[in-house]
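Subgroup meeting minutes
Present: P.N., E.W., G.H.
Scribe: E.W.

1. P.N. recapped why we're keeping a running log of single-chain structure predictions: easier to compare across weeks, and new members can see raw inputs and outputs side by side.
2. G.H. added today's entry (95 aa).
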Amino acid sequence: MQHSAFLSSLTDPAPPEGCRTEIAAIWWLKNRNWQLAHDLIDEAPGRDAAWIHALLHRMEGDQPMASYWYARAGRSAPENTIGQELALMMDHFLD
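Output recorded in log:
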């Protein structure tokens, strides 16, 4: 999905149909719905999903769980802000 299409979709009532789970989770985050983002990513496999899962726990202030998920993602805990990390994720997942 292209970055511009993703941003345009943020005013829609739900993420774009057929988008990757990771993109849908980020969509819910950008729409201030942490719980739906977490529900989507909670059972998703792979390092990309684990990275988003780590950010979600970082956002809620649960550093031990965030550290666990960063390790599952093969990443170290970032030193950037949550907003900067979310921007990195968007660059990673969107064209």
